[in-house]
């Protein structure tokens, strides 16, 4: 397997897979790569800390050659460059599974790598690069959902499910992965848009009638756009996600709020911005997502 982007997501899941005995080749760059080469890759997690003293790691994916599975864990602005870089890793049966947020990622991967390579995927976790060479996992959630776009349970999907099971990763094979990706997207568009634009955690956002309406409407617009694109989301799915939000910890925030507060680049154009863009193409009104995209536009690029 290869992990393209050894960050919060790639570093966490890759480390688990490597510790379970799988041949995992990590791809990283910069100070993070240097630190991992010098001191190994460390994951701090409430489920138990992990350490790979000498992981196979490179910044030259072409040296790795074809693999069974590529997990893509780069931020969305790096998708096209990463897709070109992993071309030498993709053989006839290789599954490229993006763990990124958003719904546009697999469209970009298909354009670069062809339809056959792309297996849909989505992940549920909160993990970040705490320091070069060190990944910090918050909470205990660590789940992958993946599947072929046609819904078939192919040997490559089943083999990866088994690998995850051996590695102690909660893994679910979806027969409607497009819908599974949209389900996460709906929730994340609401959580990221509402927490980042108010600069508040979920607890306060859901308890004030106005910010609760903001949260619900951001999700409802995403549902309307998904349904207009033919995704089988129930019409009341936003209300379902609002009930889900009511059960989550009050201090929960989206990674986009954390990025905003730390002055990092934002994935906004691929979240609320993408709802707005897709809505315009389908004739679906998305005033709340468009407003969030406009309000936060100044912060998308740091500096
Ligand atoms: N973190 C989380 O908890 C969750 C994240 N996601 C999604 O997963 C995706 C990844 O997020 P996250 O793990 O937080 O991102 P990170 O920034 O933590 O990790 C991405 C890593 O990939 C590296 N990278 C990018 N391009 C290359 C390249 N060409 N060669 C080598 N290394 C490269 C980056 O290096 P550099 O820093 O130099 O750019 C960085 O170290 C995002 O789409 C995010 O929305 C989804 C669920 C949860
Ligand atoms: C909501 C969460 C933590 C779920 O994985 C996420 O994807 C994000 O904040 O980017």
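^ structure tokens above, recovered residues below v
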């Amino acid at each position: 397997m290869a992990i393209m982007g050894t960050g919060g997501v790639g570093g966490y899941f890759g480390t688990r897979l490597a510790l379970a005995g799988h041949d995992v080749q990590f791809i990283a760059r910069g100070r993070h790569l240097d630190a991992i080469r010098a001191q190994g890759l460390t994951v701090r997690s409430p489920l138990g800390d992990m350490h790979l003293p000498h992981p196979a790691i490179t910044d030259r994916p072409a040296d790795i050659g074809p693999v069974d599975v590529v997990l893509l864990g780069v931020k969305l602005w790096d998708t096209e460059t990463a897709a070109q870089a992993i071309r030498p890793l993709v053989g006839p049966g290789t599954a490229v599974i993006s763990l990124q947020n958003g719904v546009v990622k697999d469209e970009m991967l298909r354009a670069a790598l062809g339809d056959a390579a792309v297996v849909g995927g989505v992940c549920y976790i909160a993990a970040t690069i705490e320091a070069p060479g060190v990944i910090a996992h918050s909470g205990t959630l660590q789940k992958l959902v993946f599947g072929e776009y046609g819904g078939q349970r192919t040997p490559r999907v089943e083999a990866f499910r088994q690998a995850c099971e051996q590695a102690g990763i909660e893994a679910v094979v979806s027969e409607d992965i497009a819908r599974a990706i949209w389900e996460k997207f709906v929730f994340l568009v609401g959580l990221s848009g509402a927490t980042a634009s108010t600069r508040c955690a979920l607890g306060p956002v859901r308890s004030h009638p106005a910010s609760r309406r903001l949260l619900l409407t951001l999700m409802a617009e995403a549902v309307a756009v998904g349904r207009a694109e033919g995704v089988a989301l129930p019409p009341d799915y936003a209300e379902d996600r609002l009930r889900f939000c009511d059960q989550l910890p009050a201090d929960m925030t989206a990674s986009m709020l954390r990025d905003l507060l730390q002055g990092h680049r934002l994935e906004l154009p691929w979240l609320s911005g993408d709802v707005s863009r897709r809505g315009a193409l389908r004739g679906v009104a998305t005033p709340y997502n468009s407003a969030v995209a406009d309000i936060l536009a100044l912060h998308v690029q740091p500096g």
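The chain has a mean pLDDT of 97.
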